[in-house]
Structures are given as C-alpha cells and as structure tokens.
Design goal:
Thrombin, subunit H, 6-stranded antiparallel beta barrel, mainly beta, globular, 2 helices
Length: about 290
C-alpha cells in the first residue's frame, strides 16, 4: 500500500501533500498492516452520529477526504452540516496504535461556500471534501481541518480503476477486508474494526436494490440504481465510508476496490460502491477546484 504523509499544522503556510519518497506497504497473510490504516479516520456529526472516512492524495498534490454523502447530511433538517469533527488514531513506529482524544473541526460550508463536491450521479452516495489551505474569499484563507491533524493519505494509484478491475480479475469470490469505526470501545478513543469476507455479487452493471436509508427510525427503504458491489460482511452503524480492500493471493500490493455505503435488509450483507466511482470523483474535483 502506498501512502504519503500530509501534515496539517496550526500555522503552516504551504500545505504539504507529498513527500519525496512514499513508503510502500503491503498485506500480510490476509490483513493490511496497522500503519496502512492511519489514513482511515473517524467522523462525528452534530447529531451525535459517527461514520468513517479516509484521506487520499492525487498526482496534482491535492489532498481530499472521501466519505458518503449521507454522512454529512442531517436527518433532522435534510441539509448538509456546516462542519463535522474528525479524529484519527496514530500508529507509532513499532506498529502500536496510539489513542487520542484530539478532534479537529472539518468545515463543509463557510460563508455560503461549499467545501465539498458530490458525485454527479445522485444514486452514487459519495462526497469529496477539500483539505489544506482553502481560499474562502479575497480576505479569508482557512485550513481544513482546523487545528493540528497529522495524518497519512492513501495514494490515488492504490484505487482500482475500471481497467485495473479487469486486469486484477476482481469479481464474485474475491476476498476483501473492510476497516471502519463501527464498534465503541470503552477507552479514550475509538479503534478501527476490521471485518473479512468476500465479494458476493459484482456484475459490473447497474442494478436496482432497495437500500436501507441510514439513521432512519423506523428503517426507510428506497430503490437505488448503481453498479452495486455486494459483500458478505455485516455492516454496522459507523461503517459508512469505510474503505474496502481486496486481499489478493497473487499480489502483495494493497488495492482499494470500494467504499461501504450501508447494510442490507437481511443484515447479512453490506453494500459498497466500486472504487472507480472514487477516481471519477477525484477527477471531477480536480477540474472543479482547479
């Protein structure tokens, strides 16, 4: 797995998204290493819900946060939040996870300006959020998130495109790992939970499924048409926005093949969007914020 260090400091002037050399990380027997999980962050909303997101950098040295649209939309007002909180667990040099209470404010809207972009297809539950120094107007430049937030970013090259999906033969039966913040640990910080399973259905064509809308009581279902990836792993609240890693016996390279969106009505599978929707959204963001 390739990732790059992207420190975000309180008083920095130039946002550093890429370092001169990017360390390469790979899978062990069936799991990604702990250090490779550091770009995966916990998101907390003003409505006291939580979810998962991950930081990504692209060849233009921009850094973004990826998660689901429904994560940043209030079910009470049906509008997007002005801001949420973001927290990551730091992995030390010896591989030990260091818990932290530190949270940073992540702006989504400020002075009428949106700092996020939705996928152009309304059926694809993806959003990309700007990080780093952002000019709001002629008199205001902010850093996003606010405060000290050291983190690592996944390299865009680790996200499987449509052509790579074919060459790697990602299909029904491919072993996967999802990593999300779905289980409250009674300590000062929340730790990531890994689950293992296989792709149960991935026909690479659009399907219409009845999707359980998150955070609705009682549960509300609506038909959504997209190129669903169905995974035989149970999803829990907090898993929304979690990356889906392919564990390939013929490759020690870490590949991200999707992003968790939610659970099924039978609570036996989870639904994910394929990773090429993420690379499409990064391309759109680079054009939009050029």
């Amino acid at each position: 797995m390739q990732f790059v260090k992207c420190p975000i400091m309180l008083a920095f002037i130039l946002f550093l998204a890429v370092v001169s050399s990017s360390p390469r990380f790979s899978f062990g027997q069936r799991s990604i290493g702990e250090s490779s999980k550091e770009p995966i962050v916990r998101l907390e909303t003003p409505d006291s819900t939580m979810a998962t997101g991950f930081i990504i950098n692209d060849p233009l040295t921009r850094v973004y946060l990826i998660t689901n649209k429904h994560v940043i939309r209030s079910t009470k007002t049906n509008d997007y939040y002005d801001d949420i909180r973001i927290r990551n667990n730091v992995v030390s040099a010896n591989g030990k996870i260091t818990a932290t209470e530190e949270k940073s404010k992540l702006y989504l809207k400020l002075k009428g300006k949106r700092l996020f972009l939705e996928h152009e297809d309304p059926g694809i539950d993806l959003v990309i959020i700007q990080l780093g120094n952002i000019r709001i107007d002629s008199n205001l430049v902010i850093q996003n998130p606010v405060g000290h937030f050291p983190a690592l970013a996944f390299n865009i090259d680790n996200f499987v495109t449509r052509s790579i999906m074919d060459s790697l033969n990602i299909r029904d039966g491919t072993q996967i790992e999802i990593v999300g913040f779905s289980f409250e640990v009674a300590q000062k910080a929340q730790f990531q939970i890994s689950r293992f399973g296989h792709i149960a259905l991935f026909p690479r064509e659009k399907m219409t499924l009845n999707w359980l809308v998150p955070n609705t009581q009682p549960g509300i279902y609506q038909p959504i048409t997209t190129e669903w990836m169905v995974i035989d792993v149970t999803s829990r609240p907090g898993d929304s926005g979690a990356p889906v890693f392919a564990v390939l016996p013929y490759s020690r390279q870490g590949w991200i093949v999707g992003i968790v969106e939610g659970g099924s009505d039978l609570n036996e599978f989870c639904l994910a969007q394929p990773s090429y929707y993420i690379t499409d959204l990064v391309d759109a963001a680079n054009r939009y914020w050029k």
